[in-house]
Amino acid sequence: MTIDILQLCPLTPFLEAELARRYRVHRHFDRQEKSALAAIGAEKIRGVVTGGHIGLPTDLANALPNLEIVAVNGVGYDKVDLEQAKRRNVRVSNTPDVLTDDVADLAIGLILALARELPRADAFVRSGNWPSGDFGLATRVSGRRYGIFGLGRIGQAIARRLEGFSAHISYSARSKRDVPYLFCETICELAAECDVLIIAAAASSETRHIVNAEVLDALGPRGTLVNVARGSLIDEPALVTALLDGRLGAAALDVFEDEPRVPSALFDMQNVVLAPHIGSATRETRRAMADLVLANLDAHFAGMPLPTPVV
Ligand code: 8YV
């Protein structure tokens, strides 16, 4: 019997091909009309495949009466209503662990790019200005004070990498961990304690806009903000204002609240490095994520336990 699943965002060619080999896949990307779902036949849909940044909008979930499983191609499931899933006996899976290293690597890459001004260095050489001018000086990376907000798998992987930079590491998390880093009770304390504040916590109603003007002021005009988590943790207008006013030194951002839309004021700032949500976007990791998505769907429809269940 063919099983119908709904695909909510573009996926890698490998994952799309493997899904199509196993299931009848209906693409339903965002901003599509409700009528598109009616044309597919909402009652046929038994599974949804979606990205961590897309999740499953509640109104769409409500429109799928026979939904059994939501397979998230990402570690973050903040955009899936877990309470509703539990109530409806809908399973939810994600892709933990396989992307931890990549996201931590990107955090370090963003820190290096910003402090050593790599985008400007690249542009300087390409523009042919080197023979006639001096690039100038950037900022040191090693030996500085780094604060990590969220010490889960990704936060810990970032900390391990920073140890290689002889960094002074502090963190703030829901609870104190058995780690050799300084624990700060609040994100404000953490921001005051470090030169570079790295956001690596999950998005939730408690962490929404937790990086507000007060936190940015605690980080200060020589401080740097790095976000590899979710855009919703940052009050973006407050961030733009702090950067424009010189109350915050610099920012490196891989995620945005309304991505792919990015506050345009950031485009002109030299003290900002921007990336298009590429934390897990390597060939190797996207393949491992695809394998987990397929393994969860296949297990579910074979009546087996899910390899990486959330619900
Ligand atoms: C991806 C992510 O961008 O893991 C997550 O939570 O946001 C990222 O890995 C996305 O989920 C890819 O579909």
CATH architecture of the largest domain, by name, is 3-Layer(aba) Sandwich
Question: How would you spell out the order of helices and strands?
Answer: EHEHEHEHEHHEHEEHEHEHEEH
Q: First CA to last CA: what distance?
A: 25 Å
What does the average pLDDT come to? 97
The overall strand count is 12
The top level CATH class name of the largest domain? Alpha Beta
Cofactors and ligands: 2-keto-D-gluconic acid
The tally of domains stands at 2
**Protein structure class:** alpha/beta
**Assigned CATH superfamily of the largest domain:** NAD(P)-binding Rossmann-like Domain
The largest beta-sheet arranges its strands as: 8-7-6-9-10-11-12
**Strand proportion:** 15-25%
Largest sheet: 7 strands, parallel
Percent of residues in helices: 25-40%
What name is given to the CATH topology of the largest domain?
Answer: Rossmann fold
Descriptive keywords:
311 residues; alpha/beta; Rossmann fold; seven-stranded parallel sheet; 35% helix; 16% strand; globular; binds 2-keto-D-gluconic acid; NAD; D-isomer_2-hydroxyacid_DH; D-isomer_DH_NAD-bd; D-isomer_2_OHA_DH_cat_dom
Structure description:
- Helices cover 35% and strands 16% of the residues.
- It is α/β, with parallel strands linked by helices and 311 residues long.
- The chain has 2 domains: 4-96 and 284-301, NAD(P)-binding Rossmann-like Domain (Rossmann fold); 100-274, 3-Layer(aba) Sandwich (Rossmann fold).
- Strands 8-7-6-9-10-11-12 form a 7-stranded parallel beta sheet, with helices on both faces. A 5-stranded parallel beta sheet has the order 2-1-3-4-5, with helices on both faces.
- The two termini are 25 Å apart.
- The site of 2-keto-D-gluconic acid has 11 residues, from loops.
